[in-house]
Amino acid sequence: MSSTHTGRRAVITGGATGIGKATALRLAREGAAVIVNYVGEPGDAAEVVQEVESGGGTAVAVEADISVEEDVGELFRRARASLGGPPDLLVNNAGVESPKPLIEMELTDWEKVIGVNLTGAFLCSRDFARALVERGEPGTIVNVSSVHEQIPWPTYSHYCASKAGVKLFTGTIARELAEHGIRVVSVAPGAILTPINNELAEDPEKRAEIIAQIPWGRLGQPEEIAAAVSWLASEEASYVTGTTLFVDGGMTQYPGVKP
Ligand code: BGC
User: Residue 225 is part of which domain span?
Assistant: First the structure.
């Protein structure tokens, strides 16, 4: 068993499914004690906890809507209490998306996506960093962004705005927190086989359409993102801060522009 993250206390938002689940399982396998944050039904989070525990690791499921300030306060209080100290690794992974043309978009549609994807990352990063700065301890924040921090995506203006927001949020707080020994990085997945992309997985036509936009010729696996998160969070990446690592099979390299 690898010990890259032994002794670390990690919070993974949206840790019950998809990329969050793969990340929670990987970090736990590598020695971290993990908080599996989820919202709604507890079943998936409980399964992740069970899988971690059956491998000899430590995991605790904590429900919190990360777009709500009080929920986030409670999430970090419970994380500190159950892990025996403040978390030193935060993976801002929770995210939502749903297409809506601009001219049909309600304010509530907009606010939901910005609330989880951007405000949630802010609230969690703030509470995470406060506790570490107070104690003079180092840590790492990994934001799970998207290729859509860079690629405009019709009918997803709220989603793209949230991810573009995460990009400069990452760089800006990386500058603020450097003097406290806290690194802040983003990983930007392309099209990954997760529940968010169920439709893609099931519809051969849609799948072919998206694969045509990926030079590597296939969708990604959640574990391929978890690997990047693990490395970015590790000592090996000790000189990496403020930047985004794209893990997208080349999707950001303009595959639609032909010779
Ligand atoms: C979205 C996916 C999408 C991918 C590529 C991701 O950020 O969550 O739904 O397939 O970007 O467009």
Answer: 9-253
**Helix pair angle (69-83, 120-135), 10° resolution:** 40
Q: Whose CA is nearest to atom 2 of ligand 1?
A: 191
**Cβ–Cβ < 8 Å for 214, 194:** no
Q: How far apart are CA 251 and CA 196, in angstroms?
A: 18
Going from the Cα of 1 to the center of ligand 1, the distance in angstroms, rounded, reads 32
Distance 105 CA to ligand 1 centre (A): 19
Q: Look at residue 258 and tell me if it is in a domain.
A: no
Residue 87: per-residue pLDDT = 98
With a Cβ cut-off of 6 Å, ligand 1 is lined by: 97, 146-148, 190-191, 196-197
Q: What is the CATH number of the domain that holds 86?
A: 3.40.50.720
pLDDT band at 2 (very low <50, low <70, confident <90, very high): low
To the query of whether residue 239 is one of the catalytic residues in this protein, the response is: no
How many structural domains compose the chain? 1
pLDDT of residue 199 exceeding 90, the answer is: no
Distance 216 CA to ligand 1 centre (A): 16
Q: Which of 38, 156, 159, 254 is catalytic?
A: 159
Q: Which of 171, 168, 90 is nearest to 128 (CA)?
A: 90
Q: Using the predicted structure, report yes or no on whether residue 129 has a pLDDT greater than 80.
A: yes
- Positive or negative, the CA dihedral 195, 199, 200, 202 is positive
In a domain, 2, yes or no: no
